[in-house]
Hints:
- This protein has twelve helices and 20 strands.
- The chain is of the alpha+beta class and 462 residues long.
- The strands form eight sheets. It has a four-stranded antiparallel beta sheet with strand order 6-5-7-8. A four-stranded antiparallel beta sheet has the order 14-13-15-16.
- Strand 9 (199-203) and strand 10 form a beta hairpin.
- The longest helix has 30 residues, at 96-125.
Amino acid sequence: MITNILAFIFILGSAVILHEFGHFIVAKLLRIRVETFSVGFGPRLFGRKWGQTDYRVSAVPLGGYVKLGGDESNSPIEGAGATDIPKDEMFNLRPRWQRILVALAGPVMNILTALAIPFAGALMYGVPATPAPVVSTMARGGASEVAGLKTGDRIVSFNGTENPKWNTIRGDALLSPGQPLPLVVERNRERIPLTLTPTAITEDGETAGYMDFVPDYGDVPVLVREIEPNTPAAEAGLQPEDRILAVNGQAVRSAEQVTQFIRDHKSQPITLTVNRAGQQKDITATARKLQDGRERLGFRPDEEIPLQSVGMAGAGSYAVNSNLEILRLTGKALGQVVTGQRSARNTLSGPIGIYNAAAASVQRLGWAGLFAMLGFLSLNLGIFNLLPIPVLDGGAIFLLLLEGLLATIGLTISMTVRERIQQVGFVMVILLMVLVISNDVIKLFSSRPTNSSRPAATEPAR
């Protein structure tokens, strides 16, 4: 619990601080007065004043702000500013292009953070090998078997995308639980059209679609990733990072093979042959019904995907492509909400959702999961803040551009109109916060698996 809370504070706090630092550093470089650098909104809890800036932590930990001298557009939220600021340090008297630069700097800092994390990881550790979209193993009776896929099939078209990469296939399936998706496979030099309906799995209130097959990663190790306490696996002595060599004497080639074998041999002793620190051990356990109502051993197997060394160009390409894929899937999910294909409850999350995601990432992937979640949240925070909604940076930029356009015909936007626009934007943001927090609460009380045969993980740990 302590680890989860610290991870949540680090991820959310870092994303907010980096965002506000973008505004702060550009304002400082342009010699604009920065009155307040606040993490959180509302009443000041504690902080310290250095120079002309009050660095503080405020009571409501859902964001933050930088209060610039002479900028009273957000005074209902940030409070009134000082009245003795020299004119050459006032934000509102600066050229329009400087004010736009300051507004842009926050989202840009978040986007740069989202790019920097996978870039640094790729340089230090390498890039995970991407498997070919070839069927290696399938869950018995799963979505792929029902669709007519066979081992060795190569997917050459998926949901309208020609020659898709595995990550694209998997991402589209995750967003389409229970929805029929067209695909074309190449089998014995023939192209065969099929329709696959991803299995809908609900866990922690989130529903996703699974294809129930593992792509061809080649001959890669299968490791024990997680072990739940007070389960047959834990009691038998299985340990994280054990490499599974065989199950009841059968050589293991995929995590799905292990999961399927356990599923097919319920209430029977199962012997896992593992390699632990160079020593081979046989560990025997019998699956039993656990707290979630499923008969399991209580551990998660996963493929250990090899990492390929890359240079600066390869790391940059990986960082850009990773973030573009996140944006593609996010845009597709929001589009499904608009068209009614997907519920807002299953798409939008607030603080509780972020906490749960952060906890899961850290528990499964450690430091890698912590920084991956920070990159994901930073990217979404940066893009969200570019939306033309008053109170957000995108709204400020939109008003500045509109002001410039009106100035060409001799018109201006009065302070009263600005205040009304900001008030509307503030109400919109509050309503959005209420919506996502309500979604979090509903999902929290409905977070029970609805399918007793979830497939093994089909994406490498990163």
